[in-house]
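Example record used in the benchmark description.
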Amino acid sequence: MRLLGTVLDGINAIEVVLEARFEESLRPSEPRIVGLASTSVREGLLRARSALRGQLAHELAHQPFGLLVNLAPADVHKGGRSLDLAITVAWAAVLRGIPEARLCGLVFIGEVGLDGDIRAVSGVLATLLAARRTGKRGVVLPQGNLREALLCEGIPVHAVQHVNEVLELMLLDGVPWPSSAQSHPFAAAQSSDAVALDLSDVRGQYQPKRALELAAAGGHNILLEGPPGSGKTLLARRMPTLLPPLDDASAETVALIHSAVRTLVPEQFYCAPFRAPHHTASVPGLVGGGNPLRPGEVSLAHGGVLFLDELPEFERRALEALREPLEDHVVHVVRATGVRSFPARFLCVAAMNPCPCGYAALGDGRCRCTPRAVANYRARISGPLLDRFDLRVFVRPPQPQQLFATENEEGSAAVRERVIAARERMQRRFGPGISNARASDARIRAAIAPGAEERRLLAQIMTKQKLSARAMRRLERVALTIADLAASQSQHESEATRVGSVHISEALAFRLPEEASAVG
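Model output (structure tokens):
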């Protein structure tokens, strides 16, 4: 008897062929499984035998020899609980003599309890995508994974709650199953309006709001610095509401990642994810790894926002591990069995205090930190990591007149319209899915095409502010985003975007907010 199951490898599903038969050298009470199976997979044999005692008690009692199950390919490590249902079905098929052709082309996935209940597992979406890609007949999966399964079109599914349901279907000769056609019931959730937060909740803070708009439009990483209670977290949590909805390809990738760790919410299929790991997060927890291998927070934020609150409090190794995904938008995890790659294209929003107590920049006498303590605190963030933040904004506490003003603040929907218009300009210039933050340096320079005045201003900025070449390139990207936003609101919009001195000067103000220098 042969049938199909899958195991999860990172965020991808690996097809496993189960070969089951009675082996004369094995006693009936000692079933065995071979093929680099982990402890959890081997324990699936015990769960399967217990689950089958309901309908197949007589067959189990008169089983002539022990069951032998081989998992192919034999050189791939198999772990997790997803093979339980496949093992159970294979055992039942051998006991009842079910023809192999009746189960041909079906993939079985699910955890089986001792009483036969079939429980939800992670990675179902990866299984469905793999089954669709290889032209399988259908997938039999737990009822608890059905809502997630409906996100994948083009592959029939059959959801079950108990082993007995599967056994009854196996015995019905000539009944086509699974027979349910796929639908896509969450197409209405294409807007981030599903998020309850809104930018209008933030009173005042006009410069930080402007920085959030630039970050959302150009895909720029942003660092918010300010004393406690100034509104840094309030601003950061509203960043997803400014981002355009995900396209189909991005939404499918995001769903695939979250399916692997059971954090997928089908109703938010098109919404940009928001992840806010605690500053005690480990390196594997942040960038991926562990045993079993799983994506980290940077991959769970793919297509959305990664919020790092209290940035200097993160472990130094964890912060330095962020440099690769911030630059390359992918994480490579090296294992003895090979290299696993996880997508990590996210917008990073970080927040920090200016000193250990947080009140150094207010000048009201509350700060008691020594200059050495302030220097040590700020030195926790390396220069190369700081260079990867295109925008740096100092967030001051709002004034009472701003907090108690009666006029309405601009909402997320209005800002998001401008962001979408600016991104459309970028995609016409660079291609689908490429923002100013992701385009190559050569294409950015060609798009800016600075004149003599702009070149002189850029050279003056680099000399006076002692900026690195990377910092200058990022300043140019922000200036281009500012120009794109201005052009997208123009009454005489054209394909070309003109980057002038005013755009460069505004970009510099966001690069070095404490100096707020206007050069030239």
